[in-house]
From TrEMBL:
<feature type="binding site">
    <location>
        <position position="104"/>
    </location>
    <ligand>
        <name>Mg(2+) 1</name>
    </ligand>
</feature>
<keyword id="KW-0378">Hydrolase</keyword>
<dbReference type="InterPro" id="IPR036649">
    <property type="entry name" value="Pyrophosphatase_sf"/>
</dbReference>
<protein>
    <recommendedName>
        <fullName>Inorganic pyrophosphatase</fullName>
        <ecNumber>3.6.1.1</ecNumber>
    </recommendedName>
</protein>
<comment type="subunit">
    <text>Homohexamer.</text>
</comment>
<feature type="binding site">
    <location>
        <position position="72"/>
    </location>
    <ligand>
        <name>Mg(2+) 2</name>
    </ligand>
</feature>
<comment type="similarity">
    <text>Belongs to the PPase family.</text>
</comment>
<feature type="binding site">
    <location>
        <position position="31"/>
    </location>
    <ligand>
        <name>substrate</name>
    </ligand>
</feature>
<dbReference type="GO" id="GO:0004427">
    <property type="term" value="F:inorganic diphosphate phosphatase activity"/>
</dbReference>
<keyword id="KW-0479">Metal-binding</keyword>
<keyword id="KW-0460">Magnesium</keyword>
<feature type="binding site">
    <location>
        <position position="67"/>
    </location>
    <ligand>
        <name>Mg(2+) 1</name>
    </ligand>
</feature>
<dbReference type="InterPro" id="IPR008162">
    <property type="entry name" value="Pyrophosphatase"/>
</dbReference>
<dbReference type="GO" id="GO:0005737">
    <property type="term" value="C:cytoplasm"/>
</dbReference>
<feature type="binding site">
    <location>
        <position position="141"/>
    </location>
    <ligand>
        <name>substrate</name>
    </ligand>
</feature>
<dbReference type="GO" id="GO:0000287">
    <property type="term" value="F:magnesium ion binding"/>
</dbReference>
<feature type="binding site">
    <location>
        <position position="57"/>
    </location>
    <ligand>
        <name>substrate</name>
    </ligand>
</feature>
Length: 177
């Protein structure tokens, strides 16, 4: 069985076009996580707060970030896909975040082959409303979990997202190759 974190490349043209492995679905409260030891997607928990994911959310293969996990990616989609779906995605922004004292940044991406997103190439192309909704979700989704504290630290552009992806690829190579 293919391990989507270890066996799949970071992308067909990383960092410009990456693969995003979907774990959590737009509009849902279920927090799925890919378990590389199975390998498969498992239900980790149901969000304690009455919020839902603003778009499909998952990780970038063959990446490892400063929080000790695969690098997180939120792919802006019109309709949810399914856990385990692989999306060819174009990074357009980086949301900086601190999760319980750990750097836990998120790549914001769009499907590379969806013409509805052709015009979104960089941070300034994403509507302020959508950016606010994403930030609000990540600021509040752990509020009702005891002892959890999250702080969003603003957005950076597509170039910063691509630099962070290269950093995550380097960390993966250092730790797992």
């Amino acid at each position: 069985m293919t391990n989507l974190w270890e066996d799949l490349e970071t992308g067909p043209d990383a960092p410009d076009v990456i693969y995003a492995v979907v774990e959590c679905l737009k509009g849902e409260r279920n927090k799925y996580e890919y378990d590389k030891d199975i390998p498969g997607v498992m239900l980790d928990r149901v969000l304690h707060s009455n919020v839902h994911y603003p778009s499909d959310y998952g990780f970038i293969p063959q990446s490892y970030y400063d929080d000790g996990d695969p690098f997180d990616v939120l792919v802006l989609v019109e309709d949810q896909t399914f856990p385990g779906c692989v999306i060819e995605a174009r990074p357009v922004a980086l949301m900086k975040m601190d999760d319980d004292g750990e750097k836990d940044d998120k790549v914001i991406a769009v499907p590379d082959e969806d013409p509805r997103y052709d015009h979104i190439q960089d941070l300034e192309d994403v509507s302020q409303q959508q950016l606010d909704e994403i930030e609000e979700f990540f600021e509040t989704y752990k509020n009702l979990e005891a002892g959890k504290e999250v702080e969003t630290l603003g957005y950076e552009d597509a170039a910063a997202a691509k630099d962070a992806i290269e950093h995550a690829q380097d960390l993966y190579a250092e730790n797992f190759e």
